[in-house]
Each structure stands twice: as C-alpha cells, then as structure tokens.
C-alpha cells in the first residue's frame, strides 16, 4: 500500500514532508499521500509494536495515541499527521521503567499470544486519559474496540481496572 | 488503495473550489479509507479538510446548538451542552463504533457513512449502489441485516449510523457550502430512499461540503431514550435502533419524535405516527398501537422478518423508557 505501484516509472504523485513528535522525538518525514500511519510506523520506521490485524479499524491491534487520544493507525493517513504528537507502545515506558499499564498487564497475565497486546495497552492508556471509565462495566464497554482472539478479556479488564488510578495520577503524560 | 493527489486547504472557500467529481473530502477517514482499501471508492484527489475552522460547538441565538462539521464523535457525545440538553444524541453516538473510531470520526463524516451491506462491500458481485444497473444480489440473497421499510427493487441496503437516527429525531439542520453558495437541508431530506438511484445516499452535490449540523432548541432532555439492538453487546451495527423523544404534560403526550435505525436506507421517521401519538396518554397500549401503525408498511425479505417483531418491541421499549425519563433515571 505504501509502495509505488508496479510499472509506475516516474510517479506523478509528490511525496509530502511532515513533521511530528513520535515517542517524544521530533521527526521530519517524507511520505506518499496513501501511506497509512500504520505502514509508516511498521515499514519505514521499524516500529513494529503496532500490529496490522484487520487493516480496517475493526480489531484495534494498531491502536496508537495521537495527542493523547487513541486512534486506529490503519485508518489514519500519515500525511494527515503533520504536527501531531504520537505515542506507540514503544514510547510508553520511561527508559527501563514500564508504564503502569504495562506493569499491570504483566501482573495480571493479560495476554496469551500477545498479538493484540500493544493495541490493548495503548487503548487502555487512552481510556485512562479520557477519564470516562469508572466501573468494570464501563471499562468493558470502552475497551470494545480491541479484540483478543485468545480471549484474555477477563485478565485484560482486571489489569486495566488496577492500573487506572496510577495512570490518572500520571496525569495524561501520553 | 489507489494513488491520489493530496491537498490541505486552509478555508472552506478554497476547499469547495478544489473539489470535483473525482475528489473526496477527508476528515476522520474512518469510512472513506476503508472503502478505498476495498477499491470501492477510487478518488483521484483527497482534500484534507481537517485544517478548516469547523471545530466549535456553540449555542445559537435561537436557543439551539451549532456543531462544527469537524467536531469528533467522541468530543460531541461528551460535550457538556450535548450531554445536558441533548442526551439522546450523546447516547446514540456512544452506541456506535468503538472509542478509537469515535475519536477520529467527524460530525459531517458520520452523515456520509456508506452502507455496510456485504454485497456492496464485495466488488466481485453486482450492486446497484456500487455499479448502477448491475443488479441487487441482496434482495434474493442473504438479507438478514437489510431493510424492511422504504426499500426498492434496486436496493435493500440500510444506513449504518446511530448518530443520524438521533439527529433525525431531533430535526437537525445540515449546513452545507458549495461553489455557488451556502444552503441548509432539513435532516429528513438529507438522506435519500434508494428508489431507482441507490448510488446516491444523500442530496449533497459533488462540490458541497457539510460545514455544520444545527440542533434546534428542543432537546427532549427530560424524556428521551436511544435503544440499540445488535448481534453482540458492543461495537456492532444496529439490527434495529430507536430514538424516542417525548414532551409530556402529566401523562399526556404533547409532542413525540420517533426515528428508527437499521431498518431503511435512511433514518426512518413516520410523521403520521408521531402526530397520532400527540394528545394521547403515554401508556403501554398507546406505544404498542403506534409501533403497529409504523410497521404496517414493513416489507420484510426472506431472512429479516424477525426485524419487524424486533422493531415493534424496540419501539415500545424505547418510548416506555423515554416516558420514564430515559434509561439513566
């Protein structure tokens, strides 16, 4: 998708220069208009934590934080991220110190195969930033955009429930 | 996804002058990019409208609220003015999509979502909405999720939005800007029934951009309820949804609004039923009679007859919950 189509000798389509903050680092990048943020992260920047599960906004495995809000990177054009502040799962930890949400996922064994986990964790941090989940039912409803085909939902829910106060105390750093 | 040109205009005037039949405006992109990945839409030019100054939610002189077209679904659902004065709209928005998609999707874009009919999404089969005149495999195919009201021989698709069902009930007004000027479209006229031109979902011209959605003053905050029935508890499109809003004087209904989602090519309203409700007592019997009246016109297909019964029960429950002061009370 991000590649120049086969047989296109000199594409008439210009690349666009964008500047953004990615996991705390300022970046200047040249992107083709049809490159998604997910493809930019995975194919061009080697940030492969965000996963391409469905590529249609249905599974949440590509969830990243844009200006603190969770979004599907697969349905975001990279060219439209000019000026954005992006955080992927690779940017959550503070050096060797894991983010409270990451710690809670380990403590509660909130994964089996781990494929959906980066999206789950980014989504859960976004959930904390939103401040709208006050009980178990609200956590479940507001995490419905992240599928886990292993079915680790109960542990994911427990991890998030435990980590929410610590994330709120962190005060929307991400 | 096909290659395309990209531009990002700074004002509405520039945006509409850049537009053509081969271009699309993009804001949240949650539906458009999905359609492009499926090669169902192949625009030559995307016009990024996220730099336009259309992000305000503000009160109008007439006591209503003007919502900028770029306000995200999440910001709108959780806006204090909407939560307090138009809880029906907040409920409907939060019943749709996922938190990620609601953070991305815009107010204007929500109106322009295309159907999730699986034949429309499958480019290997005919579809009158995708390729006019090619046929409709849904009519005699698997049509469990399809329309029971207002369909045509050409198309039995349903409109997917929850937000629009509430906007229909609230009689919102859509503000649009074209090259030749601005105009407003009342919500009931914005979306189309399929008729013999199902490729057209709405009344917008190619050069027209939605700039705002206006809510009239009447928000029915005391007595309203949005009920959505779907195949799983969250993050699924409606089989049937109901936006019910009442203005009550004691037990008597002064005004009633009733809009259905998941049953037609557009949010479905029946003015005759709403008028019949006015002046009657807000009782179970009244609501059952109203539901039966509305569904007299239903024409179910092979697999969706269950929707008629489901819609009847959903209408009665939504009106009953609205009369009790909404689900939260």
Automatic annotation (TrEMBL), chain A:
Gene3D superfamilies on file: 3.10.20.30, [2Fe-2S]-binding domain
Database matches in PROSITE patterns: 2FE2S_FER_1 (PS00197), 2FE2S_FER_2 (PS51085)
Keyword Oxidoreductase assigned: yes
2Fe-2S ferredoxin-type domain sequence ranges: 16-92
Keywords, sorted A to Z: 2Fe-2S, Iron, Iron-sulfur, Metal-binding, Oxidoreductase
SUPFAM superfamilies noted in UniProt: 2Fe-2S ferredoxin-like, CO dehydrogenase ISP C-domain like
CDD domains found in the cross-reference section: fer2
Record bears the keyword Metal-binding: yes
Database matches in Pfam families: Fer2, Fer2_2
GO MF terms, alphabetically ordered: 2 iron, 2 sulfur cluster binding; metal ion binding; oxidoreductase activity, acting on the aldehyde or oxo group of donors
Protein name, per record: (2Fe-2S)-binding protein
Organism listed in the record: Pseudomonas antarctica
């Amino acid at each position: 998708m991000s590649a120049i189509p086969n047989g296109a000798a000199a594409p008439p389509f210009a690349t666009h220069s964008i500047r953004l903050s990615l996991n705390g680092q300022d970046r200047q990048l040249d992107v083709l208009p049809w490159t998604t943020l997910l493809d930019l992260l995975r194919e061009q920047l080697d940030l492969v934590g965000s996963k391409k599960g469905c590529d249609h906004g249905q599974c949440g495995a590509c969830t990243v934080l844009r200006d603190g809000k969770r979004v599907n990177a697969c349905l975001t054009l990279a060219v439209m991220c000019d000026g954005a502040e992006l955080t992927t799962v690779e940017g959550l930890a503070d050096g060797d110190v894991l983010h409270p949400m990451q710690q809670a996922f380990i403590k509660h064994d909130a994964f089996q195969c781990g494929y959906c986990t980066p999206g789950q964790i980014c989504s859960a941090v976004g959930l904390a930033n939103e401040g709208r989940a006050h009980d178990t039912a609200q956590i479940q409803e507001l995490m419905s955009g992240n599928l886990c085909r292993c079915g680790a939902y109960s542990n994911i829910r427990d991890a998030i429930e435990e980590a929410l106060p610590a994330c709120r105390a962190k005060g929307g750093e991400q | 996804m096909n290659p395309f040109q990209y531009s990002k205009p700074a004002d509405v005037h520039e945006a509409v002058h850049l537009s053509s039949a081969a271009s699309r405006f993009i804001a949240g992109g949650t539906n458009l990019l999905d359609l492009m990945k499926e090669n169902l839409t192949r625009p030559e030019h995307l016009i990024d409208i996220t730099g336009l100054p259309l992000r305000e939610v503000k009160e109008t002189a007439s006591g209503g609220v003007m919502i900028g077209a770029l306000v995200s679904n999440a910001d709108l659902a959780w806006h204090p003015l909407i939560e307090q004065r138009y809880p029906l709209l907040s409920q409907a928005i939060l019943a749709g999509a996922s938190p990620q998609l609601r953070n991305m999707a815009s107010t204007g874009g929500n109106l322009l979502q295309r159907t999730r009919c699986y034949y429309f999404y499958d480019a290997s089969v005919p579809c009158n909405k995708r390729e006019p005149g090619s046929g409709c495999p849904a009519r005699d195919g698997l049509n469990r999720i399809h329309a029971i009201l207002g369909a045509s021989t050409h198309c039995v698709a349903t409109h997917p939005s929850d937000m629009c069902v509430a906007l229909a009930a609230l009689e919102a007004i859509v503000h649009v800007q074209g090259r030749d000027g601005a105009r407003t479209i009342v919500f009931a006229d914005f979306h189309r029934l399929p008729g013999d031109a199902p490729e057209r979902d709405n009344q917008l011209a190619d050069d027209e951009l939605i700039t705002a959605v206006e809510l009239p003053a009447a928000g029915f905050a005391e007595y309203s309820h949005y009920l959505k029935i779907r195949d799983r508890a969250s993050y699924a499109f409606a089989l049937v949804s109901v936006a019910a809003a009442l203005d009550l004087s004691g037990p008597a209904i002064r005004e009633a609004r009733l809009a259905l989602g998941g049953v037609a090519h557009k949010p479905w309203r029946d003015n005759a039923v709403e008028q019949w409700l006015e002046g009657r007592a807000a009782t179970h019997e009244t609501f059952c009679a109203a539901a039966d009246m509305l569904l007299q016109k239903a024409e179910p297909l092979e697999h969706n007859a269950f929707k008629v019964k489901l819609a009847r029960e959903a209408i009665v429950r939504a009106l009953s919950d609205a009369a009790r002061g909404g689900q939260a009370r």
